[in-house]
Amino acid sequence: YDFDGTIYDGDSSVDFFLYALKRKPSLLCYIPRQAWGFLLYGLKRISKTELKEYFFSFLSGLDAEKLAEDFWNQNQHRIYKWYLDQQQPDDIIISASPEFLLTPICRRLGIRYLIASKVDVRSGKFSGKNCRGSEKVQRLTKEYHISQIDNFYSDSHSDLPLAQIADRAFLVKKGEISEWDER
Q1: How far apart are CA 163 and CA 15, in angstroms?
Q2: How far apart are CA 115 and CA 23, in angstroms?
Q3: Are 117 and 130 in contact (CB under 8 A)?
Q4: What is the distance between the alpha carbons of residues 9 and 115, in angstroms, rounded to a whole number?
Q5: How far apart are CA 83 and CA 78, in angstroms?
C-alpha cells in the first residue's frame, strides 16, 4: 500500500508541516527557504529529493519525533475505513513520506512493515533516495526480498513500477477504489 492519498486522506508531510506551524508559528521563517526550493524545482535546477530537503528544513526548528506522535493523536481518524476493514498482518506500507512521520501511525495500526524515505529529524536531509517511483521497487526487493505483489494500492501513477509487479493493482481516489487499467 502507498500511504498518502491511498490509506490516508491527504498528504501527511504537508499536513504535518501545517500542524507544526499552528503549534509553533516561528516556523514561518522557513517558508522563504521552502518557496526557494519550489522555485528551483520548477526551473528544473534541483531534484525532487532536493526539493523535499528544502521543504523539510523546518524540522530543525522543533522536536519532530514528539510532534509526530501528537500529530497522529489528531489525525489517526484520517486513515480510510476501507483500509482498516481489509488490513492484514503482512501488509507493507511503502511511501515517499518520511519514515519518522509514518512510524508512529504504523505502530498504532499494528502495521509491522514500513518502507519510507529516511529523513533526518533534526535537519530535514535525506539519507538515501526519496522513496518514490522505481526506488520503491528497489527498496521492496532489497529490504524484503519481494519481487512480486499480490495486491497493490496507490493514488498515484508515479507508482506504476509497483503496479507492474502486482497480480492486481488498484487506484484509490478520495477513498474510492478502482482497477488500475494502465499497466
Answers
A1: 26
A2: 28
A3: yes
A4: 19
A5: 11
Count of alpha carbons within 13 Å of 58, Cβ hemisphere only?
27
What pLDDT, in 10s, does the model give residues 132-182? 999 999 999 999 999 899 999 999 999 999 999 999 999 999 999 999 986
CA distances from 13 to 87, 107, 175, 179 (A): 23, 18, 19, 27
Cβ atoms within 10 A of the Cβ of 89, count? 8
The pLDDT value given to residue 15: 98
Residue whose grid cell is 509497483: 162
CA distance 135 to 123: 22
What predicted TM-score, i.e. pTM, was given to this entire model? Answer: 0.94
